Amino acid sequence: MNTTVGIDLGGTNIKIGLVTNGGRIIQRITIPTNAQYGPEAVVANIINCLKQWQNQYQTIGIGVAGLIDHKKGIVHFSPNLPNWKNIPLKTWLRKVIKQPVYVGNDANAFVLGEYCFGKAKGAKSVFGITLGTGVGGGMIIDGKLWLGISDAAGEVGHTTINFFGPRCACGNQGCLETYVGAKYIINRTKRKKTTGLLTDKNLTPALINLASKQGDKLAQAIIRETGVYLGIGLANVISLFDPALIVIGGGLSGFGKLLLNSVKQTVQARIMNFPGRRVKIVLSKLGDDAAILGASQFPKFL
Amino acid sequence: MNTTVGIDLGGTNIKIGLVTNGGRIIQRITIPTNAQYGPEAVVANIINCLKQWQNQYQTIGIGVAGLIDHKKGIVHFSPNLPNWKNIPLKTWLRKVIKQPVYVGNDANAFVLGEYCFGKAKGAKSVFGITLGTGVGGGMIIDGKLWLGISDAAGEVGHTTINFFGPRCACGNQGCLETYVGAKYIINRTKRKKTTGLLTDKNLTPALINLASKQGDKLAQAIIRETGVYLGIGLANVISLFDPALIVIGGGLSGFGKLLLNSVKQTVQARIMNFPGRRVKIVLSKLGDDAAILGASQFPKFL
Fold first, then answer.
1. Which of A73, A78, A112, A160 is deepest in the core (most CB within 10 A)?
2. In angstroms, rounded to a whole number, what is the distance separating the alpha carbons of residues B64 and B291?
3. Which letter does DSSP use for residue B32 in this model?
4. Cβ distance A5 to A17 under 8 Å?
5. Interface contact B148, partner A, CB < 8 A
6. Axis-axis angle for helices B217-241, B182-190 (nearest 10)
7. Given an 8 Å threshold on Cβ–Cβ distance, is B243 in contact with A269?
8. C-alpha angle A260/A263/A264, rounded to 5°?
9. E strands, A133-255, where?
10. Is B129 helix (H, G, I), strand (E, B) or coil?
11. B147 in reach of chain A (CB within 8 A)
């Protein structure tokens, strides 16, 4: 059987999967990233995990948040991995591992996972957006992953939706991420008069979601408002790229239909409508597996 | 010699060129559009013009502003041609003309003209933007014109740069076009304390340009400010699409280096910068010919 390894290298955990041709994860390993010990330690831990599958896989794909040189397999910068500056991840792994290694951006892994095995299967063109602490994106055009000239296409989180808007960590003002990134949603909630679950000092999107499901009006309003901002950003994606399908993933996609309906309404109000207009917007159903599955497909797409 | 016909069907004039394989326009005809007489009259006038070249060309390409069904050659809607609603332009022309006819969006014609014969020749990926009364765009990806699933890709003029911004004719708020469209620039100028040329009741972008060249500080500030807004819109294009080249055309590209430098500064300040970042931004040098030349290439790209 042809199997490949897909790795989702995140700031908190490293999720490793042994994936079949058909997109089934037949074995899994999850270990803490422990980024504080530095990139060498992280890579040593990955190599250690892979030992037990030594001859069971043909290739390895790794998805990492941040700016990646996909050809050379270098992580230039990662918001989730402090001290990762121009780390030649591929070279380091290939010193020990004999199988080919492919390194890519985590949002590209997400959109590939959806395109190969999820909601975007077979779609002519796809834009994938991941909502979490950061907001990433990736695009499939004519069956190919579109990386752009600088390997930096799909950065929807850093498109401007309000040029007077809040300062973003990237240096720009009014980026989509400053409206729909997890910490901005939490801060927006905290500035309101909260009750119940929402008064939690360690408020998280998951708690906002729970409160919303329990009928908290403020939590519901926050999620709908997040959908409005997201809809503005995605309307821009549609106006520019006109994809067949947009798939929304990442932790915040757990906001579910309340978010999705608000997104759809906003998009409808903001894009040019005409009889031939076609675009579908859906929520990911693969959850955390999207990044593992997508990374396992890097060998075919990078 | 292989020659093709390229037609730029605008709201004011119809520009027709007999174009060689190498992109030389060897004969030209320009007639007034007279859109008020209706689409049948416009098409009859085009057919009349083409009679004199009867056996000299192999194919015809026509660029029209608006929403086009590129496959069927139908003009769904054109902002420049009132009463053009779902006009089967290709079918009407083919009733009389034996050569194949291709109908496309004018901004797509522009970017093709630049890609085949202008500043974007040979570029790996190109975004073309046309600045005039309307703001259009088109994109070349991997040597192909990218139309999107609804034939509506590249609509950069209707991307939101400020969700609180002015209402646009398209129904959206804060579209790029509401900041850099000709009439918005004129109105912004008129609201200031103008002197000299800028007091002209029939103020045009050309007059603003002339005033700027004569040293008018307000005119210069207006052009620089237009460059800032344009830079915000183009930074979004770069973040999403990451093209190798952006080429700026249309009447307002006559604002020249003052505009271009302001665009470049704004883009630089707003996109994520990293060592591998590559994007060039240039002004078109083809002028009005870009649309004729690009339309003549529709047969190869549609």
1. A112
2. 9
3. E
4. yes
5. yes
6. 140
7. no
8. 85
9. 135-141, 144-146, 245-249
10. strand
11. yes
Q: Is A267 on the interface with B (CB under 8 A)?
A: no
Looking at beta carbons, which residues of chain B come within 8 Å of A75? none
pLDDT tens profile A146-183 = 999 999 999 999 999 999 999 999 999 999 999 999 99
The 3-state DSSP class for residue B292 equals helix
Burial status of residue A55 (CB atoms within 10 A of its CB: 0-12, 13-18, 19 or more): exposed
Residue positions counted in chain A: 302
Asked whether the predicted pLDDT for residue A295 surpasses 80, the reply is yes
Q: Is A240 on the interface with B (CB under 8 A)?
A: yes
Residues present in chain B in total: 302
Picking from B294, B302, B292, B290, the residue whose alpha carbon sits closest to that of residue B18 is: B292
Name the maximum alpha-carbon separation found in chain B: 57
- Mean pLDDT rounded to a whole number for chain B: 96
**List of chain A residues whose C-beta atoms are within 8 Å of the C-beta of residue B279:** 149-150
Contact B274 A67 (CB under 8 A): yes
B302 touches chain A (CB under 8 A): no
Q: Which residue of B has its CA nearest to A267?
A: B172
ipTM of the shown complex: 0.96
User: Residue A20, Cβ neighbours under 10 Å: how many?
Assistant: 13
The contacts of residue B104 (CB under 8 Å, 6+ apart) are: B61, B62, B63, B64, B68, B70, B295, B298, B302
d(CA B4, CA B16) in angstroms, rounded, equals: 11
Token couple for B126: 């190109």
CA separation for the pair A97, A88 (Å, rounded): 14
Structure tokens, A72: 């050379």
Q: pLDDT tens digits, residue range A57-115?
A: 999 999 999 899 999 999 998 988 988 999 999 999 999 999 999 999 999 999 999 99
| Interatomic CA distance for residues A79 and B247, integer angstroms | 32
Instruction: Give the integer Cα–Cα distance in Å for B137 and B130.
Output: 6
- Lowest-confidence region among A51-55, B220-224, B262-266: A51-55
In this prediction, residue B80 carries a pLDDT of 85
Dmax over Cα atoms in chain A, in whole Å? 57
Q: Measured between alpha carbons, how far is B297 from B145 in angstroms, rounded to an integer?
A: 11
Given a contact cutoff of 8 angstroms between Cβ atoms, the answer to whether A154 and A294 are in contact is no
Q: Name beta bridge partners: B283.
A: B248
Residues of A in contact with B69 (CB under 8 A): 276
Three-state DSSP state, B234: helix
**Whole-prediction pTM:** 0.97
For residue B72, which of B60, B85, B86, B58 has the smallest C-alpha distance? B86
What does each C-alpha distance from B140 to A72, B214, B291 come to in angstroms? 25, 38, 15
CB contact under 8 A, A163 and B232: yes
B64-93, pLDDT tens digit by residue?
998 999 999 999 989 889 889 999 999 999
* Nearest alpha carbon to residue B126 among B264, B281, B240, B243: B243
- Please answer whether residues B86 and B76 qualify as being in contact, where contact means their C-beta atoms are separated by less than 8 angstroms: yes
Phi-psi region of A70 (alpha: psi -120 to 50; beta: other; left: phi over 0): alpha
Q: DSSP class of residue B214?
A: T
Cβ atoms within 10 Å, residue A214? 10
Cα–Cα dist A262/A266, whole Å: 6
